[in-house]
Specification:
This protein is 61% helix and 0% strand. It has two domains: 3-22 and 154-253; 28-144, Cyclin A, domain 1 (Orthogonal Bundle), CATH 1.10.472. It is globular, with a radius of gyration of 20 Å. The chain contains 15 helices and no strands. Helix 3 (49-66) runs antiparallel to helix 4 (70-84) and helix 8 runs antiparallel to helix 10 (179-190). The longest helix is centred in the last third of the chain and has 19 residues, at 235-253. With 295 residues, the chain is mostly helical. Belongs to the cyclin family. Pfam families: Cyclin_N.
Length: 295
């Protein structure tokens, strides 16, 4: 048994983790629907994995452009994948579906003062559909999601796992496990549809396990074993997803990988358009780099 579990704070973290584990499969995409998307041919008539991944990258660009949280992005991806795994969406409607999922997530997570107007969001995204189109699509999305706008995501697990692990690291060693870096790695995984088939807890554990191996934090071996057992994740599954995460991050770091493009947003808010916006939309961060460790 790892040492932190006898502390009050440690017990509370494990209690929260147990509650998440009990809920994680209730609001996840249908695996059969995701497999259909992955197997679809890119003929312009059917939804494909490539189109889905491009749409998620656009949502990531919007998230960072507006300065929204990773929680907002993760929930938007959850909404999108749940909807796509249930409905046959034509590629021409994907933009409206994606932006509607994003806006629902923004309204569920962000502070009211930070929520942009729908007109501004459509304009910045450079889509041609109307507000009425988007409002109708929001209603359709909500109906198909059974009005469940709360979902257990891999980010929530990653946050809890990170807190548990930090309890087992000295203050000096904690800088080796940078949460911002873990977040960036998870966001990169969200941009690949294959990871939407993983249990959120397993995806988060895979990202964390890889980073611990990379940083050679051998003192965390026991803590990771405990989390694996508590999360009911067998070694075979963990190894499988770790290998996919490693492949994703390796490709993502290469120049061959298509990354979210902030250039069109920089262009669309130039000049008169920028002055018309009521919010400060100029904050465009690096899209989306994985930060170095704090060494």
């Amino acid at each position: 048994m790892i040492e932190m579990l006898v502390t009050t704070e440690g017990q509370e973290l494990i209690y929260q983790l147990t509650a998440l584990l009990e809920q994680e499969l209730k609001c996840q995409p249908k695996a059969s629907g995701l497999r259909l998307i992955e197997s679809a041919h890119d003929n312009g008539l059917r939804m494909t994995a490539r189109l889905r991944d491009f749409e998620v990258k656009d949502l990531l660009t919007l998230t960072q452009f507006f300065g929204f949280s990773t929680e907002t992005f993760s929930l938007a991806v959850n909404f999108l994948d749940r909807f796509l795994s249930k409905m046959k969406v034509q590629p021409k409607h994907l933009g409206c579906v994606g932006l509607s999922c994003f806006y629902l997530s923004v309204k569920a997570i962000e502070e009211e003062k930070s929520i942009p107007l729908a007109t501004d969001l459509i304009r910045i995204s450079q889509y041609r559909f109307t507000i009425s189109d988007m409002m109708r699509m929001e209603k359709i999305v909500l109906e198909k999601l059974h009005w469940k706008v709360k979902a257990t995501t891999a980010l929530q697990f990653l946050q809890l796992y990170h807190l548990v692990i930090h309890e087992n690291l000295s203050c000096e060693r904690r800088k080796h496990l940078n949460f911002e870096r873990l977040e960036a790695q998870l966001k990169a995984c969200h941009c690949r549809i294959v990871f939407s088939k993983a249990r959120p807890s397993v995806l988060a554990l895979s990202v964390l396990a890889l980073e611990i191996e990379e940083q050679k934090l051998l003192e965390l071996t026991e803590a990771m074993e405990y989390l694996q057992i508590h999360s009911k994740t067998n070694s075979r599954d963990l190894t499988f997803w770790k290998e996919l995460v490693l492949k994703c991050l390796t490709e993502y770091s290469s120049n061959k990988c298509s990354k979210p493009n902030g250039q069109k947003l920089k262009w669309i808010v130039s000049g008169r358009t920028a002055r018309q916006l009521k919010h400060s939309y100029y904050r465009i961060t690096c899209l989306p780099t994985i930060p170095e460790t704090g060494l």
